[in-house]
């Protein structure tokens, strides 16, 4: 079932999440990134990513990035993002913001008389937001999910 799209622009797609859908995936616990573990075949109980990724179901939605403006923050084109509307804006954290009728994903730099929306790529300019702008911090970023297959053509 594909998520319901709430908003789409050239920089981000935003989707509704329906956490009542449960689907457990087998969970193996810790996986060694060094030497192989003799317990590698052991499988613990399953994990439901809805429960793991969503702390406030009524306030959570997801998005998918479009573009390269957040690369320095480890957010690439086509990454999946989880947002929480119940969290307060925090200086230095990443948020999805509604600025002058468009959503954008940026790092918040909060000052006394304005807010700067900072990109994670020197090819993009910071956005200064003050009382003259229509501006809302919509939600704070809580998780980034990277599709490994996107980077490796073997998948």
According to CATH, what is the class of the domain at 8-21 and 58-151?
Mainly Beta
Please estimate the helix content: under 10%
Number of helical regions: 2
Instruction: Summarize the main sheet.
Output: 9 strands, antiparallel
Shape: globular
Along the chain, the helix and strand elements come as: EEEEHEEEEEEEH
What is the arithmetic mean of pLDDT?
83
CATH architecture of the domain at 8-21 and 58-151: Ribbon
Structural class: mainly beta
Let me know the CATH homologous superfamily of the domain at 8-21 and 58-151: Umud Fragment, subunit A
Low-confidence stretches: none
Give the termini distance in whole angstroms.
21 Å
Strand fraction: 35-45%
CATH topology of the domain at 8-21 and 58-151: Umud Fragment, subunit A
| Strands side by side in the biggest sheet | 1-2-5-6-11-7-8-9-10
Radius of gyration: 18 Å
Count all strands and give the number. Answer: 11
Report on this structure.
The protein has 155 residues and is mainly β. It has a domain at 8-21 and 58-151: Umud Fragment, subunit A, CATH 2.10.109. It has helices spanning 49-53, 148-151, and strands at residues 5-8, 12-16, 24-27, 44-48, 60-65, 80-84, 94-99, 102-110, 115-118, 127-129, 135-145. The strands form two sheets. It has a nine-stranded antiparallel β-sheet, with no helix packed on it. The longest helix is centred in the first third of the chain and has 5 residues, at 49-53. The relative contact order is 0.18. The mean pLDDT is 83.
A few lines on this structure:
This protein has 155 residues and is mostly beta strands. The protein has a domain at 8-21 and 58-151: Umud Fragment, subunit A, CATH 2.10.109.
